[in-house]
Amino acid sequence: MTAWVRTRGVVASSYEARRPDLVLALALLLLGVLSVLMIYSASAPQAEVLGGDTVAEARRQAVIVFVGLAMFGLGSVAWHRSLHTAAPFLYVGAVISLWAVLLFGTVVNGAQSWFPVGSFRFQPSEWAKLAVILVLAAVLAPAAEDRVGWRRVGLALLILALPVFLIARQPDLGTLVVFGVLTLVMLFAAGASLRELGLIAGGGGLMSLFAYQRGWLGLVEVRIDAWLNPEKFALASAFQTEQSKIAIGSGGFSGNGLFEGTQTNLAFIPEQTTDFIFTAVGEQLGFIGGALLLTIYGVIVWRLLRTVAVAEDRFGMLVATGVAGMIAFHVFINVGMTLGLLPVTGIPLPFMSAGGSSFSAMALGLGVVHGIWLHRSKVPPRRRTLA
Amino acid sequence: MINPWRLATMAVTFFAFFLVLVIRLWFLQVAAGDEFRADAASNQVRVTYQQPPRGEIFDINGNLLAGSRPSQSLLMQRAEGSSELEEVLVQRLAVLLATDQADLRDRITSARPGSVIILALDITDEIAFQVQEFQEDFPGVEVALTPVRVYPNGPTAAHLLGYVGKGSAADLERYGDRIRTDDIFGRAGVERQYDTLLRGTEGSEVFTASADRSVWQFAEERPAEVGWSVVLTVDLDVTRMLEQVLVDAIASSEALGEAPSGKAAGVVMDVTDGSIVAMSSVPSYDPNAFVGTLSQAEFEVIQENDALLNLAVRGTFPPGSTFKVVPYVVAAEEKVWPEGLTGPEDGKVLEPRLEFPSFGEGSPQVFTDWNPNHGWTNLHGALEKSADVYFWEVALGVWQDQSKEEDIIQDYARDLGYGASTGIDLPGESAGIMPDRTWRERRHAENPAAFPNGDWYGGDLMNTVIGQGDMVASPLQMAVSYAALVNGGTVWRPRVVGHFVDGQGRIVDRREPAAVRKLDLAPETIASLRQDLAGVVARGTAAGAFRGSPYLEQIGGKTGTAQIGPAVDDIDTSWFIGISHISDPRYVVVIVIDEGGGGSAVAAPAARRVLEYLLDPATAPAIRQEAQAAGTIR
Q1: Interchain contact, A324 vs B14, CB within 8 Å
Q2: Going by DSSP bridges, is the β-strand pair B57-58/B229-232 parallel, antiparallel, or unpaired?
């Protein structure tokens, strides 16, 4: 009995266990609202100057947020065991769409990553992330702690190789890194030995270095150079990063106030509504706003890791791990880029950057993990499980 | 299901990411926020500036002394772009203009991005064509007509006008935000003194930038305001005359076997209001040389023999006998007479030398007059013949009379403007030195090594009354003091500017004559001095120089031959200070020829030519009086 009481924080009763995670849902809603607001602030002044529709971008994002919330709900009710079964098919679909985008897609900012769909753009790589998470989870689920085995590791890498090859052709360095890290994290959670993990990480690193040296990374290379030598690239490639730091830095502790950001209003930051949306937050809402936003992400990651701890089966646990890793890395790479910590890569800020594919796919992933939470074990697997 | 340590590792890793981001955010926004806020402020606007045409400078008769001419120039607006592109541009421009690459690069990179740099003035049509034809090779470079300062009279009145050029670091600091490194502005003379009025107000256009700086939105315009033009009190013709006279005097000094230093200065001032009619300093320079870029070597050539110094205001010379008017006035006003005499008319046969009792230790000091045979002399004769002994005896009287202030002669001199700046509206004026006991003690206290003697002796006073010893004064100070003595006691603040005219031709700022102080001198003293100054010319030390002058009756003056120091006997500063219309004084003419020899032989004949020019109805600057009164001179 004592054990039951002590674990109340994690799992209390079968009734409670099936209650939706309102904290997670609220966090998502908050991000969605903030996203619309920030995109409005970053797009309206310029649209006004150019004589366009000042609410156009914000309206579009509002639609995206609604679609995203629906995706969250859809994911929540999707029976993850059916996803387990469907995973290979989803993966094949993702690979085909990634291949198709190279043939028929639209080039934006030097990367061929999009299908135009009406006034929206469909970005297969965002969905592919989810498909890869599912298929990796399916492949790794039967393994046991420290018994993943080289055969499974090899299969996982093979699964990774196809989309990585296709995305490298776009090229999209950020997404590439996300895929690599995702695989690594999921292998880690699945119980791969440190030797296996070290070998993969080392091999991956060497391959990247080789590709960089041979100049296969194109645009990406320039950005890495700019990141390594900002002075040399002053006002050229490092321009974005400098402008981003200026905008965020000028926000100070409490920010310049909503719609009061000079850098945001004058549209100094390229790609501000998409990859650099965090600059709008930093300038207008300051350190308080930025730290609060990061805290919301922290809450989401916490809820996801909690699901990892109590998932009903290994497939669910691995999916939750994959989604948690994906979101945490997106935030780290994106915000790190706007703060000048990391090179500029085209990675969106989850649930904030303008863009339907990213928001919908992420929300769907979040929903799937939420579904796993709803179907979690009634009995906690271990007493000392992390809450 | 999942190994707890794996879960814990993941959790710690993920939250470490967030922690890193929050710390970095704190650093950017809170620790370094101010810095970025400043960057943000300068980020959003770009300003282009328009330099208005500089005001012109005219003489009192409307002759142009300094103006502007259009020059086909090569301008460049410094871009925001990458330094690599700029480097390519520098190399192309260096080839095009056939100039030094390093120098060009230096000039471009020192300018603020967005500002306009003058790359070259007076470019050939060929270069202009090159730039216009291959515009894409020279981004941001354009051919335009820009105003260039021009001084039509070359070296004439150069010191008074000054010149324009790029600002030194100190100048830039003086102006603060209102000036930029690529501006030209007044470096000397009137150009410098009234730079803020002449330069006008810079206009600007403010643009706010948007989307990756490709769109510039016009936000605000401040139109440029044309600089004010200035009309001087100076007469160009008199200035030309004065300058020629100085050059000729140096030549005549050489002909007399002297070894003049080549330096000379002259001032012509209106004694009725302190207006400077002419001012010259030799050697002179051509201010046009400073337009455009000047190499260090070229600058050194110009600067040779201190040619940039305006000796009329900045040079200090021992005044010699020209200073005797001061003890003259002290004697008459304070009734201090040589031993045995009772008044100005009372005279005696002067001894050729005077033994001046030295107080404290040391033997009595003995002074010998330059002329041992003055014969019977009273006050009038003493000035006419420039008798040293007479004034030494006056000094002795002051020294021995316990009822009088010891420094009474110096006090009179200071009231007349010696030992202090006159306050003329020109930069770089020297105050001269009016030595007395306090001055001697202070100088010794400040630097005992260089000036071991801190005591003031009677002999020092004797040196002072004949304008020797430590005493020095500028030619301008001499003009001001003589003007005050002959005009009845008004010490004017000398001025070179009559009035300013704005862009529409309206008189906007009239500079009225300003008196520094009014001395309370007895009319008899003034009358007597005028008479004796006339006597100097008629029968005194300057009689030879003025013999046969048609205007002899209307001229007064005083010669001066000052030794540079006791050690160098042969090298004399040659002075003459003349007064025109001596019965109703109008102009004072000061001539000093450095190391020129005797005042009677060198400076006096020079001054005669200027005085006669001023008195000749054909050449007298009468028109200026009328025009000034009517206020019609532009």
Answers
A1: yes
A2: parallel
